[in-house]
Amino acid sequence: MRIGILGGGQLGRMLALAGIPLGLQFRFLDPEASACAADAGELIVGDYTDTATLDRFLDGVDCVTYEFENVPLVTAEYVSARVPLYPSARSLEVAQDRLEEKTRFQALGIPTPRFAAVDSRSELDEALRIVGGSAILKTRRLGYDGKGQARIESAEDADTAWGQLGGQPLILEERIMFARELSILVARARDNSIAFYPLTENHHRDGILRLSLAPAPGITLDLQNLATRIGHALLRDLGHVGVLAVELFQVPGGLMANEIAPRVHNSGHWTIDGAVTSQFENHLRAILGLTLGDVSPIGRSAMLNFIGDAPDISQLSGVPGAHVHLYRKDARPGRKVGHVTLVGADEAGLMPKVAALQRMADTITS
Amino acid sequence: MRIGILGGGQLGRMLALAGIPLGLQFRFLDPEASACAADAGELIVGDYTDTATLDRFLDGVDCVTYEFENVPLVTAEYVSARVPLYPSARSLEVAQDRLEEKTRFQALGIPTPRFAAVDSRSELDEALRIVGGSAILKTRRLGYDGKGQARIESAEDADTAWGQLGGQPLILEERIMFARELSILVARARDNSIAFYPLTENHHRDGILRLSLAPAPGITLDLQNLATRIGHALLRDLGHVGVLAVELFQVPGGLMANEIAPRVHNSGHWTIDGAVTSQFENHLRAILGLTLGDVSPIGRSAMLNFIGDAPDISQLSGVPGAHVHLYRKDARPGRKVGHVTLVGADEAGLMPKVAALQRMADTITS
Prior knowledge:
2 copies of one chain form a homodimer. Chain A is an alpha+beta fold. Chain A folds into 3 domains: 2-85, Rossmann fold, CATH 3.40.50; 114-174, ATP-grasp fold, A domain (Dna Ligase, domain 1); 180-362, 2-Layer Sandwich (D-amino Acid Aminotransferase, Chain A, domain 1). Chain A is 33% helix and 28% strand. The first copy, chain A, has 12 helices and 17 strands. In chain A, helix 1 links the parallel strand 1 (2-6) and strand 2 (25-30). In chain A, helix 1 packs across helix 10. Chain A is globular and about 55 Å long.
């Protein structure tokens, strides 16, 4: 069976590495000839909206999925008219637009920061009155890793933010004083069965995920259940098939949903080495109509991203127990080029190793 | 960095799946266009002794290894004159010839069944007097999975065995009444550092490995140490770099060495899912001059081979906790086409699942 993946980055690469042992073959579509997934499958280089390219990509493919949420909707429609596409275009549609996304949260009764659509300078002032004094102005579409965002704390900030982002559909969001950032990865199979990983604690630096701890330390059963209910509500509402990531804020009294990703997610990379079945394998199981695999963690995991550049494999191989994942991407500021996962019996034992890896990474990129 | 692998079967495939996350790329050389490693790298189809093919294979490759011990020595010499080859031709030379192999065991003081070279019918009679009445006549070269072997218990058996195998270099080996078959996987890096996995218990059916349990149940520290000493002696004697598998018999009073494989080995497949670092990753770490990874098991593992044919992924996905490995090889009697590993806290919990998988497999192949 051959799986087509829209996008040929590290998520596609890791999907293939999880799927080849299941007897699957992979084909990727990516505009870049250097797409790193090519190490684990066939790469078609071309534009996502070029129908000749799409036909070539789809020829002999049994099922299609995607590794990024900004797949053009026309592409999703073209594909799904020919080959089963999971998750469906509906998940893309909601995830591509922050306003749609937050509106769904609200409709489903999922707590989310206050928000308002902003399409003009005067709407920004109005939105600031609704949302409150401490806010973030964001593009509704195509933002990731903290890009397309501006903080607003004062009237002058509003002008600056508008100067920076104005002229495209925007959303103003309340800036939440959260205790910590969490995420939950949930998977829904074609038979409607659902599985969820334990909550993961995420730490960002410059808007980019740097460190994930899983299971998130000190999570009560109530909080895990709350996250699971949020995940399930979204899966059912979207008719989502595959893995869905929900980014959450832990706030006094519970959780707030921040955003979703209708795909495997960086905060779930720890599952490759730290869970019985990885998010990548479970995404494939879900979209192929197979039974979902055991999502139990096998210990406590810490996943550290390498951003911009990564230490050499000869350095990394010297860190006892480090599970190394290098994506073979050229170094570039802000780019995720690899990660390492450590698995142990408790966080206390992991943290000194994480700190050493962090110093190793900082030496490379500074 | 690009690694060349002589042979494109499932061992090459699993080496690549372990190496791609380290940032490595793979190229395979195999005479078969259908070689299953092609899913995880570039496949060159051609003969191992054709220099034009070898030149194409070696072009741009940084290091070469092999996934089967019957690589022609002329190939190993041609390759190693151009690119670093690990393990070296010396390991191949010894492993390719049962007489060489057993002679090395003897020279190193490693207990092994009695044996004698047999090149003529009269030498067979003489050998039977030395070795004893219950023996196995084997081809010295190219035997695997029980092929090229004949049991001898009587004078008539000797005639039959000679009729079957005579006319090529043979070895007669004492048939040992062992308690069980074990194996140990050891790895030696380029800096001479050594790592070893726990002893594995192996069960064969029709001469083909069917089930491995690791760590082997009820192993004393003395026995593990004895196996480790055997492994270390062989690694040092051969100047071996990479993983080496030693097949052993447990006998009253200790262990006897049966044979070696100078490569990753079927009885080490459990390490993919059941150890911190797999035999495949450690083989690559060893040959690339990296630090060897942690060989600790993460629980008790049971690995079941699928021979001839394998259940469908849709059936296998329904077995909770089963780590599925299908090689995408066509069904054929006696052929290893996949395996499943189960990892748990104790064997008692694993065995019912193993039995269910065994029944599933038997239904397919019967």
